[in-house]
Each structure stands twice: as structure tokens, then as C-alpha cells.
Design a protein that fits this description.
The chain is 64% helix and 0% strand. By secondary structure, it is an all-alpha fold.
Length: 245
């Protein structure tokens, strides 16, 4: 699955020299400081509170996209100082979500913050922390559904398989089917809600959703229509047969 998270960003060569110089100086100071052994051990849970998006914009002096990229680099590297085996799992996820939200607000065309939320930070064995990340992806999905659908599809699968929360998976799958309009979005993504409903044994609801999908006329591929029609007929047969004893 191809995840479109790149934004309409300027190349690094277009970033003003003073910004690159500031970054290089900052990195040099950090490296020198660490080499002296003077920096105290830092736990990943020490992530500071996120600044307001407006503060980040002002700090970028008109180079919002470049500032957002630098902020993401800093955020991704923050917990590497803690010496933990899987350091990001120890972060304060409410603060982490606030950082990702602020960075996304600074550069809304970039999906990198949500990509990190879905594909890195949500892969956490702590269910509450994983849920915090999938909720963030869902909350920002509706702002750009045709570009962010791969991320919502991924967290729908996480909700189903990692969180074992089928109602939540259905909520995400339903949003995926109803809010996207790009005809190139693959069939499996549009049909996800139907399969989740079948897993929930909600056959009547699955029949309604499937029938509605066929009735929209949006399914232009004949093979896909035949598959969905056969799926609908199978659900109807299961409903007529009644529950297994």
C-alpha cells in the first residue's frame, strides 16, 4: 500500500542558509555536549509540553514547512537519548499527540506527523497509548480524506487486530468509505466496513452497507460489482438460514 504523506515542500536547497546554519550549530553543540558526558540521563517520558502552533509558525519566520520538518526530526530523535530498548513507548502520549497536532497545524499539507502516529507510535503494547495515536489519526483524517485514507485504513486494522475493538474498527472503516471521493482508492479500502460487520456478526448491517455501496453507482469495475453482488447474496443466504445451533 502506498502511503502519500509527502507535502508540497521546498527542497532543502531552498531553505534560507541561516536556518540550516542554526540547525547545524544546534546539532554540533548537542554532539559536543554529549561527548563530554555532561548531559544528565534523560528518560523518554520527559518530553516537554508542545508549544502552540502559532508559536511554531512564528519561530519559522515564514518557513513553516521547513520548521515542521525540523520539529519532526527533533521529535523522532528525542527519545533516543534515553537508552531504552524501545524508547518511544515510554513517551507521554498526551504530550506526543500535542506535538504531532501542532506540527501538522504548521504544515497541513504534510502527512508525516500522522504517518509517524499510525506507523510508529501506535505500534505500542500499551493499549491506552496505541488508542491515543489511532484517535489522533481519525480526528485529522476528515481534513484531507483522499490523501490520508491509507493512514486511516492502517489504524482501522490496528483497532481490529491490536486493540481488539471491532466497533472502533467499524467507525474508522465507515468514515473511510463515506468521506473519500477519489475513484482510484482501492476496493479493499472501500469495502472494509462490510468485512468488519461480518466479523461482528452484524449481517443485517453488512447487507445494508453492501447494498448501499452497490446502489451508489460508484463501482465502475464489472469484476468488483460481481464480487460485491456475490457477497451480498451470500449474506442474504446466511440471514435466511438463521443462526447456527
Amino acid at each position: 500500500m502506498t502511503t502519500a504523506w509527502t507535502s508540497r515542500e521546498r527542497p532543502v536547497a531552498a531553505v534560507p542558509g541561516w536556518i540550516l546554519g542554526l540547525l547545524a550549530a544546534s546539532l554540533s553543540i548537542q554532539i559536543a555536549w554529549q561527548a563530554t558526558g555532561a548531559e544528565p540521563a534523560r528518560d523518554a517520558s520527559d518530553l516537554p509540553r508542545a508549544p502552540a502552533a502559532q508559536v511554531l509558525r512564528l519561530a519559522g519566520f515564514g518557513e513553516s514547512a521547513a520548521l515542521a520538518r525540523l520539529a519532526m526530526v527533533w521529535l523522532l530523535a528525542f527519545d533516543s537519548r534515553a537508552g531504552n530498548a524501545i524508547p518511544y513507548q515510554k513517551l507521554d502520549y498526551d504530550r506526543l499527540a500535542a506535538w504531532l497536532d501542532a506540527i501538522l497545524a504548521v504544515d497541513p499539507r504534510s502527512n508525516f506527523p500522522l504517518f509517524a502516529a499510525a506507523r510508529l507510535y501506535a505500534e505500542n503494547d500499551n493499549p491506552a497509548k496505541a488508542r491515543r495515536m489511532v484517535e489522533l489519526v481519525f480526528a485529522r483524517f476528515g481534513e484531507d480524506p483522499n490523501r490520508r485514507w491509507p493512514l486511516l485504513a492502517h489504524v482501522a486494522l490496528l483497532a481490529k487486530h491490536r486493540l481488539h475493538d471491532l466497533p472502533l474498527a467499524r467507525q474508522y472503516a465507515a468514515a473511510l468509505q463515506r468521506q473519500t471521493t477519489d475513484p482510484t482508492i482501492p476496493a479493499w479500502a472501500r469495502q472494509m466496513e462490510i468485512f468488519v460487520l461480518e466479523d461482528m456478526n452484524e449481517l443485517e448491517a453488512a447487507k445494508v452497507v453492501l447494498g448501499g455501496l452497490l446502489a451508489t453507482g460508484k463501482i465502475g469495475d464489472a469484476e468488483e460489482r460481481r464480487f460485491l453482488q456475490s457477497r451480498l447474496e451470500e449474506i442474504e443466504r446466511r440471514l435466511k438460514a438463521g443462526p447456527k445451533r
